[in-house]
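hey
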């Protein structure tokens, strides 16, 4: 097994090594790590078979470790109050010159841990990841306690099963597609960017896949079986699933491949990335998940500009949208089109069909319309 990249490449800091990180605890120490960096690397190695998860977990653990080191603290000395301070820090990293800056590779000399304050949803996700890290290090005997175990927990009752709102209604989706078609196409390079964006939106919407799944896919993952076309997707937790390729998606694929100078349909085992970087003709290089996010985000921002003058609420929604909204939109629109709930659940590879039920917005619309039958006054009342 290859070793993961260093947790803190080139930051010039050293972690404090302790003779007994358990500080006298009676529980057995189940890992060899004798300092915070080594302990976190051991935890991260548990996710080497899931690159996307590893990237996110590494980012959040590194941020916390840099924050703690900046205050001369080790993980085992952090208490609940410290994590509350860190939560507030994530919402406003200060001093900004030390902590925030443009997105750069982590080995860049001017790399910063943040590009700006985190949104509430990102802060919540960061704390969930760190909670998993603290629990692992506590269970391993490296820490005496988990300071995030006291975190106020929200009920998983009604709110957990509430319908998801991060999707586009059909009218808004049409506006997004209009913005896509209005991308500049004056130069050859702009045309290539347009063709790639067009293919990417077809791919994300018609399949409902995640951007990380697109980034790791090749043309050879799309194959024919019994005369039907399928896309074999490597998903979360390295789980493999087969997604039907519709005629619309197959036509969009043939158009994109023709633009790349390839045959209309992929060959078995073809290693060409499913979505390529725009470089030289005949050069096929994988697109990163971040690049996919930025391409989609550009189209959303263009659509937001169309609504900003007369519908600021809708413009704000479009500005907040991400690639994952396309997965939610795909699921919602499949159900609206009459695709059976079980089929949508299988296409999205949900572990539970109850997860898929959150996309049944049409049921709520029908219930809302039916409720209008209740009136304060009977229609036959006369003055």
């Amino acid at each position: 097994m290859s070793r993961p990249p260093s947790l803190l490449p080139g930051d010039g800091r050293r972690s404090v090594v302790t003779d007994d990180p358990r500080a006298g605890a009676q529980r057995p120490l189940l890992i060899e790590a004798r300092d915070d960096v080594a302990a976190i690397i051991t935890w991260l190695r548990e996710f080497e078979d899931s690159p996307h998860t590893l990237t996110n977990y590494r980012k959040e653990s590194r941020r916390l470790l840099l924050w703690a080191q900046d205050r001369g603290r080790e993980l085992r000395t952090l208490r609940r109050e410290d994590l509350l301070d860190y939560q507030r820090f994530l919402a406003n990293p200060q001093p900004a010159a030390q902590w925030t800056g443009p997105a750069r590779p982590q080995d860049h000399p001017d790399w910063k841990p943040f590009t700006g304050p985190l949104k509430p949803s990102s802060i919540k996700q960061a704390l969930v990841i760190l909670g998993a890290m603290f629990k692992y290090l506590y269970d391993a005997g490296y820490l005496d306690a988990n300071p995030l175990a006291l975190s106020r927990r929200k009920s998983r009752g009604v709110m957990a099963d509430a319908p998801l709102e991060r999707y586009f209604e059909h009218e808004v989706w049409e506006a997004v597609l209009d913005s896509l078609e209005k991308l500049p196409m004056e130069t050859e390079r702009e045309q290539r960017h347009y063709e790639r964006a067009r293919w990417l939106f077809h791919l994300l919407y018609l399949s409902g896949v995640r951007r990380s799944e697109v980034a790791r896919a090749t043309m050879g993952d799309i194959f024919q079986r019994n005369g039907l076309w399928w896309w074999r997707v490597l998903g979360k937790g390295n789980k493999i699933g087969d997604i039907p390729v519709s005629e619309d998606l197959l036509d969009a694929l043939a158009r994109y491949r023709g633009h790349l100078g390839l045959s209309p349909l992929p060959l078995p085992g073809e290693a060409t990335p499913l979505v390529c970087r725009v470089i030289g003709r005949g050069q096929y290089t994988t697109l990163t998940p971040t690049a996919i996010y930025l391409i989609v985000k550009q189209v959303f921002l263009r659509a937001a500009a169309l609504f900003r003058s007369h519908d600021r609420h809708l413009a704000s929604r479009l500005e907040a949208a991400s690639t994952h909204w396309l997965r939610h939109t795909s699921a919602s629109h499949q159900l609206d089109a009459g695709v059976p709930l079980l089929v949508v659940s299988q296409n999205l590879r949900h572990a539970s069909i109850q997860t898929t039920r959150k996309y049944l917005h049409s049921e709520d619309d029908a219930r809302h319309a039916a409720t209008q039958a209740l009136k304060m006054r009977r229609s036959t009342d006369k003055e």
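Residues 1-153 form a domain with the DNA polymerase; domain 1 fold (CATH 1.10.150.130). The longest strand covers residues 228-234.
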